[in-house]
Amino acid sequence: MYWQESRNSENFVVPDDIVDMVYGIRCRSLPVDHAYALSQAIQAALPWFAAEEGAGVHAIHVAESGNGWMRPDDPNALLHLSRRTKLVLRVPKHRIDDAHQLTGQTLDIQGNPLQIETASIRPLSDLTTLFARYIVTDGADESAFLRDALKQLNDMGVRPKKMLCGIEHVIRTPQRSIRARSLMLAELTLPESVRLQQQGLGTERKLGCGLFIPHKDIKELQQAAD
After folding, report:
1. Angle at CA 43, nearest 5°, toward 38 and 47?
2. How confident is the model over 54-67, as pLDDT tens digits?
3. Residues 93 and 133 in one domain
4. Quick one: 99 and 136 in the same domain?
5. Is residue 203 assigned to a domain?
6. Which of 44, 52, 101, 218 is packed most tightly, with the most Cβ within 10 A?
7. Mean pLDDT throughout 180-190?
8. What is the pLDDT of residue 12?
9. Which of 106, 123, 140 is the last residue in one of the domains?
10. Mean pLDDT over residues 18-44, rounded?
11. Cα–Cα distance between 3 and 132 in angstroms, integer?
């Protein structure tokens, strides 16, 4: 864990040059490790997506709840999706019309049909606590991972006061296995938060890595960890 004292927020207008396309979907289940199959299906449906530098796809998640369900470790186990589950793509503004073409299509995700029913536009968040489920790592331990992440952030002009990382996960593709950790950043300035949502961190955006979303305050997680 990396921790410093807080600082004041800044007034800032969130630009709309990068947005999230949020799709309502109908899909009963997906494999836990579905990132590669989902990415390939989206690239087949949207041929421009692979080469679009600012585009990324969020891996589909279902809530881990207090009733005993936890995300399975087996990559071939199934996630059972609810009607509230969404598919989210992060795209540049000039690709919004193109991204609407996904509506009405049915994607094949390792034999699981995923029907795209609706699409809406969601601007980037004005919150200053951000969370990425997957940041690519070289397999370093937690302290080394945080040091490397902090250097990359500082090179971007982003200086978080608090950082917290999670356990390592593996994203499998036919060519290789990608190691990644979750990362939470707190007490950013608003310009830093927006810059990080726009640019991401590290590689493999098309597999859901490096993409930041708003999250609850880091203090709640620290209290739970304690």
Report:
1. 165
2. 899 998 886 553 33
3. no
4. no
5. yes
6. 218
7. 95
8. 67
9. 123
10. 95
11. 18
